[in-house]
Amino acid sequence: MSDWETIRLDYEDDVATLTVDRPDRLNALNVDTLEAIEEALDEAESEEVGALVLTGAGDDAFVAGADISYMQDLSVPEAQAYAELGHRVADRIERFPAPVVAAINGYAFGGGCELALACDLRVASEDAVVGQTEIDLGIIPGWGGTQRLPRLVGDEMARRLIFFGERIDAQDAREHGLVGEIVAGDELDDHVHELAADLAAKPTYALAAAKEALNQSHETGQEAGLRYERRLWSGLFGTHDQREGMEAFLEDRAPDFE
Ligand code: COA
Questions:
Q1: Source organism's superkingdom (predicted)?
Q2: Which of 102, 90, 99 is nearest to 34 (CA)?
Q3: Which residues line ligand 1 (CB under 6 A)?
Q4: Which domain holds residue 29?
């Protein structure tokens, strides 16, 4: 197991939990932290976990954004490299072969909100506050927010959130579709772990194929997307889980997936 200073990676019940661990900076993401997240994603993937949880250390923040003290004096080429790193990490989360669930335990601003947007599912504690707040720093979302936010909340609401840099509470985020579910703060970890463990118990290849096909709907037109879906769908026939799932249904028993 690797040893990082700014993140933790824990395993339990086929579920990995990646915790951004810079509570004195409200888990803001500097270059070291982003690189550590990349390494941790590689490690969790090679461990073949069934689901991954992404969260922040402490009671206050999921991730309060990109590190503003680092960004302050960046040149254009340096900013470009930082955006590329942020994009790489968000893409890596989006393409992680197993489902990734964001447990939003507090502030999720700017780059923190964008990491959550790259996850498959978002569960917020009732006192979480989220937003694409970059406008008030004189910049715009640079780690995927302009592309991923409108898909969840719609174009008008994305424009409102990004133009005004509004910080919205968990209830509003739920109402707008930015998070899927809200739970009490002291239940968040257990609830998300249970959700992730339930996902990890599902047929692995089918879940990975479902994720890939859904992701593809953002990349191509419908015709190409349907071709993609057909290929992934038919590729599942003959797998243990397909045979077992269908046999179990026909024999009226619970399936025993690989
Ligand atoms: N980058 C770097 N440092 C950050 C940070 C960020 N995104 N967010 C918070 N911090 C640091 C603060 O500078 C402070 O450091 P200090 O103790 O050396 O003064 C420490 O974390 C605690 O933050 P503080 O602002 O004192 O806490 P708070 O409870 O009063 O406010 C927030 C919390 C999240 C409302 C506030 O920190 C904030 O607005 N942060 C910036 C959010 C943002 O715009 N993010 C988008 C960046 S792309």
A1: Archaea
A2: 90
A3: 25-26, 28, 64-69, 107, 109-111, 133-134, 137
A4: 7-200
* Alpha carbon of 48 to ligand 1 centroid (Å): 35
Please report whether residue 257 resides in a domain. no
CATH code of the domain covering residue 225: 1.10.12.10
Name the domain count of the chain.
2
CA distance 3 to 214: 34
What pLDDT is stored for residue 2 in this prediction? 73
pLDDT computed for residue 56 by the predictor: 98
pLDDT at 13: 87
112 and 240 share one domain: no
Q: Which helix (H) or strand (E) holds 222?
A: helix 222-235
The protein residue whose alpha carbon is closest to atom 41 in ligand 1 is 64
Domain holding 89: CATH number? 3.90.226.10
Say whether both 212 and 94 belong to one domain: no
How far away, in angstroms, is 233 Cα from ligand 1 center? 45
Confidence of residue 1 (pLDDT cuts 50, 70, 90): low
- Which is the catalytic residue, given 12, 38, 45, 134? 134
Known active-site residue 229: no
Nearest to 54 by CA among 193, 255, 200: 193
In this prediction, residue 36 carries a pLDDT of 98
Choosing from 39, 78, 84, 114, which is the catalytic residue?
114
Alpha-carbon distance of 36 to 115, in angstroms, equals 14
Instruction: Check pLDDT > 90 for residue 237.
Output: yes
